[in-house]
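Table S7 (text form). Paired inputs.
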Amino acid sequence: MHSLLFSRYGVGMAYGRHIDNALMGGKQLRRSDLSFTVFLSDPDTYTGGELVIEGPDNETSYRLAAGSAIVYPANTLHRVDPVISGERLVAVGWVQSLIRDAEQREILFDLDTVKRTLFAQDGKTDAFDLVSKTMANLLRKWAE
């Protein structure tokens, strides 16, 4: 994790459509693979100010509860709509993953989801061990 930034948006403030910089960090540059936003204001204290993330076929707006966070690929187009009333406080930051390739990260995420589901359903089983082994071996192969 790197380049944590606290932002305050008052009435009329917005942040236009963009993708985050590929490299950040000043003297020691780091890749920005994932972006995150931690919502610090209760959504009842302001209107507008939605974080809008574009997908291939749609846009999704977020105004989450204070203390909630959303993580999304740093190369995703996104924006912050204008604040209409109140004040929007957030912390934003970026993560350099040990896995550079987004498709490989998605495979590992899906496998981890399956692993957690298997464990929640049946505890430590042969299937759980096999998924754990596969994840570990893919990490060895793909990690930088």
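Next pair, protein 2 of 2.
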Amino acid sequence: MNELKWLAIYLAVAFVIMLFLPFPVDLAVALLAFLALSWYKRNLLLRKLGMENPRSWDIGFEFKKIKEFYKSIFSNVSHSTDYGQSQARYYCMKCGNEHREIACPKCGSKMKRIGL
């Protein structure tokens, strides 16, 4: 419902701008209004989440934070253990050897089962 409200706001602002300004000017002003509303919406959301950015004009700062966020997500996914349990162990189905390779180093079989 919130997205529909913002869509209506965007459309209303664009319609009013296009109604009162001539063609080449209204396009530029509508684009600037769209960017301003997007910036306001982002800051409003950050304030609601309690993450108000005191240096919102510093784009490099924001990219650094976004980069750190994605790094933390992907590092947690690749090195995660399920709820504090030990990592899964893989056993060869042919000889029972525990390994982490694609093929078993002992017998060369690629079939493996998981054991916790």
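Residues 78-82 have pLDDT under 50 and may be disordered.
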